[in-house]
Amino acid sequence: MTYTPSFDKKMEYYRSYQSLGGTAGRVTFFKNLQKFFDLTFDAYVGGDAPRQPAWAAWVTHIGDNMEARAYFVAVDRIDAYT
């Protein structure tokens, strides 16, 4: 299972991300955000998969642990992600 947020929800996440110092533009953020949900949703929200491999896949996709964390925190500030 995965999650695809509405445009308004994506914008809330994006503003949260920007407040954390995130530098990705909106289009890039939206693409990465969907990948974030694709890779981590089952592990963090559904509890149907182990978290460590999901997180590792997400960090590998983004290429930087701090940037990966910014996406997580941006979403978690708006909607509890765990």
What do these coordinates show?
The protein is mainly alpha-helical. It is built from four helices and no strands. α2 (26-46) runs antiparallel to α3 (51-62) and α3 packs across α4. The longest helix has 21 residues, at 26-46. It is globular. The model has no long low-confidence stretch (mean pLDDT 95).
Features:
globular, 4 helices, mainly alpha, single chain, 82 residues
Task: Compile the SSE list and pairings.
Blueprint: H1 7-19, H2 26-46, H3 51-62, H4 65-78
Helix pairs in contact: 1-4, 2-3, 3-4
Helix content bin: over 70%
Radius of gyration, in angstroms, nearest whole number:
12 Å
Structural class assignment: mainly alpha
The sequence of SSEs as H and E is: HHHH
| Mean pLDDT over all positions | 95
Using the alpha-carbon principal axes, give the shape.
Answer: globular
Q: List the total number of helices.
A: 4
Q: How many extended strands?
A: 0
Taken as a percent bin, the fraction of beta residues is under 5%
Taking the sheet with the most strands, its summary is: none
Low-confidence stretches: none
Distance between the termini: 15 Å
